[in-house]
Amino acid sequence: MSRVALITGGGGDIGAATGRALAAAGWIVVLADLDAEAARAAAEDIAGAEGRFLDVADTGSFPAFVDGIGADHGRVDALVCAAGVEPPHTLADLDVAAWDHTLEVNLRGPALLAQATLPWWRRAGGGSLVNIGSRTWLGGAHPAYAASKAGLVGLTRSLALELAGLGVRVNAVAPSFVPTRFARQRGDAAVVAEFAEQVRRTSPLGRLVTPEDVAAAVAFLVSDGAAMITGEVLHVCGGTQLPAFPRRAVPA
């Protein structure tokens, strides 16, 4: 029987790319998104996939939602939490509502979705959770967003310890800037483009991260090839996490 993966933020570029990567590896994929039309449109391009509505801020809906997937497919093996928000607030203009919403989507959502998936992992004797984080957990960004992504690392490591005895592996993927629709909507187009070029120039590998790069990391982490990997944060950022100096490149 094919394994089943639930991907939140499935209507976005990273979620959809992850769905394609897992489907190519033989998984049944459920793309969940607040924008149900986007999730369904993404699913149309993936054999055997489906798109469903899910509001990650509505934690009360999680048990019935996950159980519905389990009832339809007989199992839920992997949870990939790719849904996220990033209000472009500085400390000076950050309000309580924006702070709370960022943490409820980016941090509380993954925690309680994992809780809702737990009975299915128990039933299967194992499973995998991958949280899509961000390089900003180390480098900083908008305060609420960076705090939520740093918290996601703490959650990842805590759940890795707690769930290891059940055979559930928990990891995070932390990309640097990815030029997705989500990223392009975060501010003025010229400012975003300038930032993207700055990231590209500072990357030792000389290019930006793509949704497919992130998806490949997720596909590895949920695979049997990562059977002894848990509690890790896999940075997908072309080397931008490395110290800037000294940089000694081998001549091409």
UniProtKB/TrEMBL annotation:
GO terms for molecular function: oxidoreductase activity, acting on the CH-OH group of donors, NAD or NADP as acceptor. Keywords: Oxidoreductase. InterPro entries: NAD(P)-bd_dom_sf (IPR036291), Sc_DH/Rdtase_CS (IPR020904), SDR_fam (IPR002347). Belongs to the short-chain dehydrogenases/reductases (SDR) family. It comes from Pseudonocardia thermophila. This is 3-oxoacyl-[acyl-carrier protein] reductase. GO terms for biological process: fatty acid elongation. Pfam families: adh_short_C2.
